[in-house]
Structures are given as structure tokens and as C-alpha cells.
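One chain shown below:
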Amino acid sequence: MSQYQNDLNAVMQLCQQNGSGWNAINPEYAARMKAQNRFKTGLEIAKYTAAIMRQDMQDYDADSSQYTQSLGCWHGFIGQQKMLAVKKHQGSTNKKYLYLSGWMVAALRSEFGPLPDQSMHEKTSVPALIEELYTFLRQADAKELGELFQALDSAKASGQDTTEIQAKIDNYETHVVPIIADIDAGFGNEEATYLLAKKMIEAGACCIQIENQVSDAKQCGHQDGKVTVPHEDFLAKINAVRYAFLELGVDDGVIVARTDSLGAGLTQKIPVSTSEGDLASQYNAFLDTTEINSVDELKDGDLALRQDGKLVKPIRLPNGLFKFKDNTGFDRVVLDCVTSLQNGADLLWIETEKPHVGQIGAMVDEIRKTVPNAKLVYNNSPSFNWTLNFRQQVFDSWLEQGKDVSDYNRADLMQVKYDDSQLAQEADEKVRTFQADAAREAGIFHHLITLPTYHTAALSTDNLAKGYFGDEGMLAYVKGVQRQELRQGLACVKHQAMAGSNLGDDHKEYFSGEQALKAAGEDNTMNQFDVAS
């Protein structure tokens, strides 16, 4: 028996037990409302979606073609429309998530106005967005189920077979999916990280991504000036997130440990080594130093370390930060990743400067020598010039193979004149298959785009404004937006229904019966869209 039928039977019993005082309660309506509000709390969502992620991770370990994907979102409506689109076009939300981008929270959701990705926004805006996203996803469930219930009532009224409609209700697939939520560098010390992680989990987050940058000097992963923390500091924050999950009963919560070491050449402090070869010692071995032959060479305020039997002075910048040796990023990334996985993290995030399967795969191969099932969450970042990167990769490959590249200028491959060239076509095919290739060859379990809808909102608005305020006038909206919504079957063309007017009408009828004043009558202009597209 389905949950819907169980709920219906349970409410029927309640009505019988409570006698005539409950005569106005329709058990079927109550069961419908329960079905339309399957998840009562954020913790229910976190537990439900954590189990999904854990199963997906197992599926990927068995078959790398079973990778997962998400798109970044900055508003509940955007997340809702994404999952509606996924269900419409893919038939299922299976292995499709949402990503909560700290960059977009900073740029679009801060009360300070647009901010750079430097952890300056209100940290409370992160759990607030998680809650908002799940509110909109649950509303999508309520809307679609409401339409199924209306279809069920119509079928019953006309004496039609209701088996198929009832099966859709009983086996309804929710729009609620896992969210990978960005906690930046933890917004403070490990206690601050724990407190924020709890709020995020209570809002519904089953997966929290945390990075090894200094919290008060955090930079976007694709900008300069990144400063990392010693492993001990980072592991304390991983522990803090795990304790938050355990305290709230989400025992299988997922932690993504992000390393920015590939692009970070600085550290804020030198950790204290207590035994030879410990983590602090390994971290300090990457410091850029100069050998000291005599204590007299040290000036007031200088620091010195003993390394490999020698006295050395770490290179210290005027701002007090310490510099790593050049060309150590690869090795630091590997150490970061192995250490994180050995100390409580479940997944890795390696922030790179370009989308190159070979580069990512080389690091993962090295990590897997120690942790064989290591796997990544990877940022398919809009900060990369994907067109130029992949055209240059093809150019380099052709050059290595001895192919004639005389028709191409490597530095200018972004030019429009190359768009229809053989090289550009091959590059586009590599972009198309990048996620599958990287999942197979570079251990990437989850592919995401951090801030795609920041760009899609800007692009679509630009196109509309260009025509609307130009010669096209109203045709710019009608032809470019509304007609496309109709032709492509977007539910949002009926924006009143999308915003909940039909749900409200249903509830009014439940509560008031025939006295209900409903919005969906003959004079509702949304009826104009009930035509073949």
C-alpha cells in the first residue's frame, strides 16, 4: 500500500474517533495535503538526501559513467525551475543535484549589496538560501501533485479509469534533491564553522563543502592572493562539520574538502612540529627558505627553522605571510587531499586554473596511490574560457601529432573566424564529452557549474532589453520569451499557477466548500494559455 493510501486510512480513522466534530474534514483532502508536504523539516530533507548521495557515490565507485551533476543557484525560484526542467527533459531527478555557490550568495544575496567572493557576506544568508531552495522545491511537488489530484477528480467525475493517475500519485518522484552547500572557509574558527554547519544542516543541507583557505583572507578560487592554512587547522574544521552532522542525527552527512593549494602560494602561519615527519613538518617543508650559516645573519624579528639538519629562514612578505616554494602546488594538493580523506572528508574538490582532464587525472592518480576510492567534486567554472582552453588543447595535440596547424594562431583561437573550423569542431566535441571523460579518467564523481544562472540571467535580460527598448518593442518579449515558453512547454508561462494560485484555490475549497472564492475562474487571463502550442 502506498504512503498516500496509508495516510488516507489514518485520517479516516481519526475522523471516526473524533466523531461529529470532524464531520467537515474530508480524509482525502487531508491525505492530499500530507502528500503535497512530504518533508516537514530541513533535517528530514538532510537525512533523505544524504542517503541519496551515499548511494550515488557507491554507484560511481562501481561504474564511473554514473557520475552526478548540478548547477549553481542563487534563488529558490531558479532552483525550482532547474529541477522542473530536469524532470521534464530527463524524466527523472536521478543523479541531479543543486549547488549553493558562496560566490553567488556574496554577489546576489548580501544585504551589503554585490560583494566579491571573500566571505564578507552575512553567513546567515547561506542557511537562509538552503531553506529557500527547499521551500521552492517542495512547492513544485505541491503544484504537480495538485494537478494530478485535479486530474483524478475529473476522471472520477466522468467515470474514467483512474488507475494510471493514481499510480502516478502513489509513485510520485519529488523535486527535492541533494544540495552541495558552500560554507567557504568556515566563516571564522572551528566553533564558528560548527555553528554555521548546524544551521545549514537544519535547513536541509546533506553535503557541506569547506576549503582550506584562511577564513579572514578568503579569495575566490580563480583569483590571486589565496592563502592556505596548515592541515591541523583545516582538519579541525572538518571535525567541526562532522560533529554538527552527528549531533543532528545526519550520520551519513557528506563533507567535501576543497584544496586551493594549486593556485595558493602563501600561508598565514608556520605550524608547530612535535615529531619528525608529522603533518606540520611536511607542510613546513614546502616553505620557501634561505639557508642561514650563522645566527649573526638573522636580523631582529627574523624567524628561523631547523630543517634537515640546517638552519633556514622562511621567506616572509611585508604583510607577514610566508611564501611557498615555486612549483610545489601539485605536491601540496596531493598531501592536502590524502590528509583530508584520512581525517574525515568524503569527497575532494581540487580548484584548478583550467579544465584539463590530464592535469586533474594526474593529481587523482597520485592521491589514489594512498586512498584508492578517492573521488572529486569538480568546478566546471565559468571563470575558465572554455572555448579558448579547448581550442588550445586541440592545437597542442595536433602539433604533437605532427598535424599541419599553419592555418591557426594559437593565441587568437578565440576569434570568430575559427568558429566553423575543423579545430573548433573537435574542441567543441571535447567540451561536450568533458564531464564523461573526466569522470572516467580523472575520478570526478560530481560535476557542477558554480554560477551559471548569474550569466544566464544577465544574457537573457540583455537580449530582452536590447529588443524591447529598441525597434522590436513588445515583440521582443512576445517572440523571445512568451512564445518560447509556450512552444517549449514551460509551466511558468502560467505564472499565477506557478506562484501558487491554484494551490490556494484547492485549499479554499477544502476549507470553505462551495463558498470558496477562487481565482481560477473564467475571467482569469491565464486561461488564454490553454491552447495548443
Remarks:
- The mean pLDDT is 92.
- The radius of gyration is 28 Å.
- Residues 483-513 form one domain.
- DSSP finds 19 helices and 14 strands in the chain.
